[in-house]
Amino acid sequence: MLLEVESLEVRYGTVPAVRDVSFHVETGEIVCFIGANGAGKSTTMLAVAGVLHPARGDIQFDSRSIVGLAPEQVAALGIGLVPEGRRIFGRLTVRENLVVASGLRGGMAAQKQTLDVIFNLFPILRERYDGRAGNLSGGEQQQLAIARALLTKPRLLIMDEPSLGLAPKFVDLVYETFVRLRNSGVTLLLVEQSMRRALSLADRIYFFQSGQVVLHGKAAELAGRSDLEHLYLGGAAAR
């Protein structure tokens, strides 16, 4: 088991945003979180990445508890995060954005092989290498955000709504990249708004509602259920 989360509770002040959430991710899987805005998906991911600290529960990565570790310590263990909104440095060049990320793993000189992989995945980043990141399109900025995360050499890559705001052609490219990453040995944990996309991509899916997991299972099995749209919109669920 690569990642195992048990009875997670995360609060914003005194208000619980996530309550008694348990899930796991096995090596080589693509796992998706589905649910309406405010259901607790992003909060759960930020807790795994060390950005938020749980009020209770445990997060085990490769059989080691990572609760209480800082985000850079979590990244050093092999968990990469691509947050919602990408958060690239728009005033810096593509190269400078990548230099910042490479510092976590020994600098650019030590990253030639990873850079070759990145440029094979995202040729546009090689073309725009010395251009300002802020001048990239939304889809190109998403590619840069993923590339930065890959430079930390993650075993588990966490992405929060990676297709949000992208043109359909870029969504297709990003999802093709996910499959290629999984085939290269990277395990993926995604928050995704499109239920159709999640069902076609993921090995397993967790449905969130009001800060809790209300349904989970293999995507191939869940695809046959008639109540998924009701769940997504916030209806009650049978587990």
Just give the CATH class of the largest domain: Alpha Beta
Tell me the strand order in the biggest sheet: 6-7-8-3-9-10
CATH architecture of the largest domain: 3-Layer(aba) Sandwich
Helix proportion: 25-40%
- Counting structural domains, the number is 2
Task: Tell me the number of strands.
Answer: 10
Task: Quote the CATH topology of the largest domain.
Answer: Rossmann fold
Helical region count? 10
% residues in beta strands: 25-35%
How far is the N terminus from the C terminus?
A: 23 Å
Could you characterize what this model shows?
The protein has 239 residues and is of the alpha/beta class. It has 2 domains: 1-78 and 154-239, 3-Layer(aba) Sandwich (Rossmann fold), CATH 3.40.50.300; 89-153, no CATH class. The protein is built from 10 helices and 10 strands. A 6-stranded mixed sheet has the order 6-7-8-3-9-10, with helices on both faces. It has a 4-stranded antiparallel sheet with strand order 2-1-4-5, covered by helices on one side. Helix 3 (94-102) packs parallel to helix 6. The two termini are 23 Å apart. The mean pLDDT is 88.
Defining key terms:
Rossmann fold, 10 strands, 239 residues, globular, alpha/beta, single chain, six-stranded mixed beta sheet
